[in-house]
Amino acid sequence: VVEAIKDLVQDCNFDCNDDGIQLQAMDNSHVALVSMKLSTGAFSPFRCDRNIALGINLNSLMKVLRAAGNDDILTLKAEDQPDSLNLVFESPGQDRMSEYDIKLMDIDQEHLGIPETEYAATISLPSAEFQRICRDLSALSESVSIEASKDGVKFSCSGDIGNGSVTLRPHTNVEDESKSTSIALTEPVNLTFSLKYLVNFCKASSLSGSVQLCLSNEVPLLVEFKMGAGYLRFYLAPKIGD
Amino acid sequence: GPKQRSLFTFFQKV
Question: From the CA of A77, how many Å to the nearest CA of chain B?
Fold first, then answer.
């Protein structure tokens, strides 16, 4: 998760309570927002005696996380009114244990209320497919138009060297649900977004085999990666003509 | 071309 969001947001409050750990942060330009939840089910055990916000610089956290092995067990600990976060990595065979403390920061973060939205279009597709489309089209243009209709979803762009588009039609993969593409539509939508941000969101592709795009005309796009016990959501403000 | 909007256009601070 940290790897997926660290290029978008730098200083974040990890809000801890009985439900687990949540994070909401906007990028500096106020165009994209990250919303993450790791429920208690993601941890074993999980204990939180008092609601607490852990202000963490993600670059610092990455420096420490890089010291962990892929299969290590990670324990995160913070005291009441902490000035640091304690991280312990234990190898699966328990023959190696490393321990780090990183300094916490006071982060005065703007919190946005995200209204419950009935989206006009909800598209589910393999996350690798979405990543490929964003990467391919970003070579041609800064922006992509996403047009969803009952026939399919069309990603199109135009730039100095020419233009391009990718159209996906609904498709069911019976062996692997995450490789399916589905489109639920109440009305057609057509919106334009910055590809730079979408390419950035796709760094979360390794967290989930499929991704959900939720769109309504003239509202921010929701890109959701569902995780075993939580989610990573990105909101992106659209580009709108005058 | 179309202009990039801010999230503040759509979401309120709480």
Answer: 29
